[in-house]
Amino acid sequence: MDAATLIFLSSGLFLGWSLGANDAANVFGTAVGSRMVRFTTAAAICSVMVILGAVISGAGASHTLGALGKISAMGGAFTVALTAALTVYMMTKWGLPVSTGQAIVGAIIGWNLFSTTPTDAKVLTKILSTWVFCPILAFFTAIALYKLVAAAINHLRPGLFGLDNWTRIGLVLAGAFGSYSLGANNIANVMGVFVPSAPFDHTTLLGIDFTPAMQLFLLGGLAIGVGVFTYSKRVMMTVGDSLIPMTPVTAWVVVMAHSIVLFLFSSQGLADALVSVGLPPIPLVPVSSSQAVIGAVVGVGVLKGLPIRWRVLARVVMGWCCTPVISALGCWLLLYFVQNIFRVVVI
């Protein structure tokens, strides 16, 4: 890889780091917030599973972002990813669990406006609808899961220490599943804009064929892992204990509900299975892990009648609404400077 290619990809790697610092932390946020899993253990499992999910199953959701904006110039992809990363970084500094997906979609729309490329209204509507549908689905999934778990505990009566051990194991397994789903779903946010101009060739390693997209996703997954280790703890604590008081069982329900929702929106196999039986497929869209986990937290809080800190929730929702707008405007301005000051081809 030459120096110019590495410079262009650096913005995607920065975005991956931001995702690790913000969105990826949500997978283990409730577990760490409830003190059931140590931060270093959670970060290690999360990093490995995110990389596996990105490389093995990351292609599906990236096609949707590609349809929203076909950015064929490396300079344009660099600027779009850089803007999204700066937006997420700014929100993370404020302790807000924003969506990397909203930031990258806003930046792509900014590129479309700058290049006078029409935005596909059908694709944009599909993405926007998932932003609304995702937390609602997580809300009801968490309620259903909590009722099932409560019924199982009442039936089995495992005892205090037994329940504690099973919950701890369950949190680790659910977090690993959620991390895999996060990598499969959200890697499109990190490296999706670089796929049309991927600077790699097909290569074979240990008998496995690695496409240019898979090599990009591997780099993005490594960047996410670095973000998880270096900067995610603060957001974990916001998600883990700022909205409602979190018990270990509640934490497991929230992580599991969040993981199921992300898996539904990233599984090509599930989409193909639904089509094969005549049902409409679930759209493969990079949804927000932050929205999923907070929807699940609120669902459990409402079901149990817990005091929800609405002021914190309102601040988080405000961050969700501002993120795509800030990212779109920032991308337009940054494209102008990159093209006219640095003389880099962006469209």
Description:
It is a single chain. This protein starts with a helix and ends in a 7-residue tail after the last helix. The protein contains 14 helices and two strands, in the order H-H-H-H-H-H-H-H-E-E-H-H-H-H-H-H. The mean pLDDT is 84. The chain has a two-stranded antiparallel sheet with strand order 1-2. Helix content is 76%, strand content 2%. It has 347 residues and is mostly helical. A hairpin with a 2-residue loop joins strand 1 and strand 2. The chain is globular, with a radius of gyration of 20 Å.
Sum up the structure in keywords.
single chain; 347 residues; mainly alpha; two-stranded antiparallel ribbon; 14 helices
List how many beta strands DSSP finds. 2
Molecular shape: globular
**Strand order across the largest sheet:** 1-2
How confident is the prediction overall: mean pLDDT? 84
- Return residue spans where pLDDT drops below 50 for at least 5 consecutive residues: none
Instruction: Report the end-to-end length measured between terminal Cα atoms.
Output: 23 Å
Estimate the helix proportion, in percent: over 70%
Please indicate the percent range of residues in DSSP E strands (runs of 2 or more): under 5%
Structural class: mainly alpha
| Secondary structure tally, helices | 14
Pattern of helices and strands: HHHHHHHHEEHHHHHH
Could you describe the largest sheet, including whether it forms a barrel? 2 strands, antiparallel
Radius of gyration: 20 Å
